[in-house]
Fold:
Amino acid sequence: MGTESAGNEGVGGRRSEFLVFGSPMIEEPEIQEVVDSLRSGWLSTGPKVARFEELFREHTGCRYAKAVNSCTAGLHLSLLVSGIQPGDEVITTPMTFGATGNVITHVGADPVFVDVDRASMNIDPDAIEAAITPRTRAIIPVHFAGRPCDMDRILEIARRHDLIVIEDAAHAIEAVYHGRKVGTLGDLASFSFYVTKNLVTGEGGMVTTEREDWAVELERWALHGLSRGAWKRYSDEGFKHYQVVHPGYKYNMMDIQAALGIHQIGRLERYHARREEIWKAYDEAFADLPVFTPAPTEPDTVHARHLYTLLIDIDTLGVDRDSVQQSLQDDNIGTGIHFIALHLHPYYQETYGCCRGDFPNAEWISDRTLSLPLSAKLTDDDVDDVIAAVRRACTPTSRRS
Ligand SMILES: Cc1ncc(COP(=O)(O)O)c(C=O)c1O
Structure:
């Protein structure tokens, strides 16, 4: 299924061109669709956003899907519409991007981190249960790298303690858990279409829910708290007055962004299949190295294959993860780190007194993790280059000084 690329042979078998981590696959139909938006003059929220929401509903099987300008905005609005307030506690994982914790503070609530399972890298349900207090109002599980969390246990805990579940589905657009798509499991879910994601709109996000009242609120909060959006105010049905019903935000998605999404969404399966091939090639190629490859996928689930996070066995190799990353960089291979555990960042240490030692599993992963290129855009030669560079960096005897 992959393609061959020619002429990228550098010195000593190394690439001559830098391989950008997370470079998105963009095809001609979405380029033409963006041009069409530009020519039409309808650049901001309009018919293409409505179409993208419709396609997203079909994809996940959810009742309501509301497009926003980022997953971060979607998480923030999810907390708002579900009534999370100052003084409330929201339990989440430290093995995530800053956005997941930051939005909790944006509504004045307190993030409460709990440790992850070392193999799945997802939030540990036992640790959630142990962290519940009378102030706990919500849980934000993150489907890390595209691997669905243990949602049966999380939803059961939430039901028993009357907690809201907001799925951080930034990585997980193709993920399926026990026959249901991620995005239909919790009370709300937020997806990301940032450039490195499985579906890209440049910047962008989508919130899904089954509740009509929340869907209405999401749309209002995303557009200044107006009673009607621009599409309804300025369309050929005639001008309509609006009222400000909340002090809302400016979180709406543009038609220019949705123009990309409405074509990308039709290729999710094809791109996922290509990433699956690359994933298998990496698993096989690294089996004999001092690294830990991602754990097998849990039964009756589909992993969205968003991030291939190699864990460097730093004790056996005798060098730290950053040195391995530098070695790949020197070989013209771009990589990512997902993530430095959130409780190790200065804001969370200074504000909430978090410190190293709090969450041993998250820290173990944080110190060793290195994400390799996994875009559907990679050619077979690109994949071979990544493999060769990882083997050079992680083979103790041939390590360069
Ligand atoms: C787990 C997770 N949550 C949320 C986000 C935020 O997504 P966005 O950039 O669309 O706001 C990201 C972004 O990478 C992420 O990795």
Observations:
- The chain is about 40% helix and 10% strand.
